[in-house]
């Protein structure tokens, strides 16, 4: 008998949810660290899917790092609010004066204060740039779009990581349950081998039958080994997502692997199609890129209007009067550079991002249509399996094992049914797994929990 069961790797990526609600989860979630510490001591962490996800949202390093990008973007908005610093210039200072130089003065220059700076010439100028055409406000608008972009990039990362995390968790559950089936089969074969060994010693069976059971035990052990390697690989990926180190084994409660058919049948997914563009972070990012270039265009147009520099100066001993106070202004003349290139760049950016946004929307709609059909197909297949089929299958197999031990059926009949039993158990488990995967894919496509 050849075992046909092969392990199919789980899909990557994960679904997202809205930014502020998930930030609240990341910051406020109260998952008990003592449970985790206790589990580490036992080298086993066994939780349900919900608690694993809480741990993921709390500890994933990529999510934590991405929140700092939002803070960086907000800091740039604060920077855009600031006025330029005034400029202070002190110049034309004579550090000493010769007698010949002093002879040209009608009267000595007095001290500035105390005995400091007697007969010393210097000039002081204070200059302040006045920003015109609302450049500060327009630059703030550009940077505010940057904050929205950072928030949506967080949403997109969260969406992808949740998709990857949940599918990896599903794969681990599937591998655990599938491995458990083979462990039970191996234990059963070991009991049959003990009984057959006694019958072999009494010459009631041939050695060939006994060797066939031994071969079956070896095949089951080989399959368990392959499943264990796949499970270890999946655990490794899950530990990275959970930021867990050390020799901790991850186990997922089995109860929540069976889909909630009632809930899935009541889902009105088609209603979400009407506004799922408002949820998908990649669609919103494309729209924000367009908004960015519109804000940038307003800012670049304002850059064509020169700023004004106001100045106030004091000159001591450098002109007609011993002490002179003066005021002035300076302005660039927009003769050669009227910021034409930057304005054209922003205009082309608006056109480019508008086309890309339409393309992303088209692709999102096509993804939804396909993934909704796949989800319905997976649900229909699972519904086609009778509710008590798996229980009946286990009972019949147990009956076959007892009849085989009582020699009411021969070895070939038993092995044939056992292969059919394992194949059907695999199909049932994979149908449940497919429901989880397709539901996550649909949520990922919509960009919202359903």
From TrEMBL:
Keyword line: Coiled coil
TM regions (residue ranges): none
Keyword rRNA-binding carried by entry: no
Residue runs in coiled coils: 213-244
Residues making up the signal peptide according to the UniProt record: none
Record's keyword annotation contains Magnesium: no
Name this protein carries in UniProt: TolC family protein
Species this chain originates from: Gelidibacter pelagius
Taxonomic lineage: Bacteria, Pseudomonadati, Bacteroidota, Flavobacteriia, Flavobacteriales
